[in-house]
Design brief:
By secondary structure, the chain is of the alpha/beta class. It contains 10 helices and 11 strands. Helix 7 links the parallel strand 5 and strand 6. Helix 1 packs parallel to helix 10 and helix 6 crosses helix 7. The structure holds guanine.
Length: 295
């Protein structure tokens, strides 16, 4: 069996096409323009590219976008003061602070300082808690995108054995909770593996759906999966450069070998990556609707 390649690029485009008329209708019917503020405190080129792409996508959809690029030595107080201003700004419905933050800034304090109603990343403890009890307002963007990839590729989620490799707060833990909910597009049996797992292959071989977010290039190989598995590869690893200086990327899954056994698999790049930004746009529109009493 050679796997179907699940194109995040295509599915994300389809979701944005569905979102466009909704944004236009909000403007026409209610004079409501969703607003997103991005905050970057980093000189990391990858983070700068991500934030640039978020701003560009927002503008292309008719979302108001405000970008705050702060010097890397910005104090925590200054960042908190900016967040306070954005929390009060009526034009802004969603606030995104790009992670990671510099070491001198306490990330937890910063994430707590965002008004949960504007927390379109879904990282505030209020939103984490709401997801855990099955009443989420905002799903974190990457796991939300993973769920959409599964639904829109026609993967049976209800009743499936889902194995998540990785327990980060951004991907592993939230995707486990999303797929655990007693809801459509969820209702799976979820196992979470991590660095303390004794026998990884025992678990990964049982998976109908395998979601990998380890940050280790090609960590999952064909001998670790069963025939017919659906694989979502969240990893983005830079493993070298082309002669032209472009980064060579690979995922956490060895695509070449695993695709011979899998039913479907996401590529890297072009899988989960493009979904994350699009789900941020969905959350920003939802934030605007919630603020206006329309959701
Ligand atoms: N850094 C890596 N992924 C993310 C994300 O989903 N949101 C934010 N704010 N920063 C990130």
């Amino acid at each position: 069996m050679t796997a179907q390649i699940i194109s995040g690029t295509e599915i994300a485009k389809q979701i944005r096409e569905e979102l466009k008329p909704e944004i236009a209708a909000l403007k026409e019917k209610y004079d409501l323009v969703p607003g997103l503020a991005t905050v970057l405190v980093s000189e990391d080129p990858a983070s700068q590219v991500y934030v640039g792409a978020k701003e560009k996508t927002a503008l292309a959809l008719g979302i108001y976008s405000e970008r705050h690029d702060l010097p890397v030595d910005t104090s925590e107080e200054k960042l908190l003061a900016l967040l306070d201003k954005l929390n009060k700004a009526t034009k802004i419905h969603g606030i995104l602070v790009q992670l990671p933050l510099p070491k001198h800034i306490n990330m937890t304090r910063v994430l707590y300082a965002i008004d949960p109603r504007k927390d379109v990343d879904g990282f505030h403890p209020v939103n984490v808690g709401k997801l855990m009890i099955g009443e989420p307002d905002y799903l974190p963007c990457t796991p939300y995108g993973i769920q959409q990839l599964l639904i829109r590729s026609g993967t049976q989620i209800s009743g499936a054995e889902v194995v998540v490799v990785g327990r980060s707060n951004i991907v592993g833990k939230p995707i486990a909770h999303i797929l655990l909910q007693k809801k459509e597009g969820a209702n799976a049996t979820v196992t979470v593996c991590h660095t303390g797992t004794r026998d990884m292959t025992f678990h990964t071989k049982r998976a109908d759906i395998l979601i990998v977010a380890t940050g280790k290039p090609k960590a999952i190989t064909a001998d670790m999966v069963k025939e017919g598995v659906v694989v979502i590869d969240v990893g983005v690893n830079r493993i070298g450069k082309t002669a032209e200086g472009k980064a060579i990327l690979c995922g956490d899954v060895d695509l070449e070998s695993v695709k011979e056994k899998a039913k479907a698999i996401t590529p890297v790049p072009g899988g989960v990556g493009p979904m994350t930004i699009t789900m941020l746009m969905i959350n920003t529109v939802k934030a605007a609707k919630l603020a206006a009493g329309l959701a």
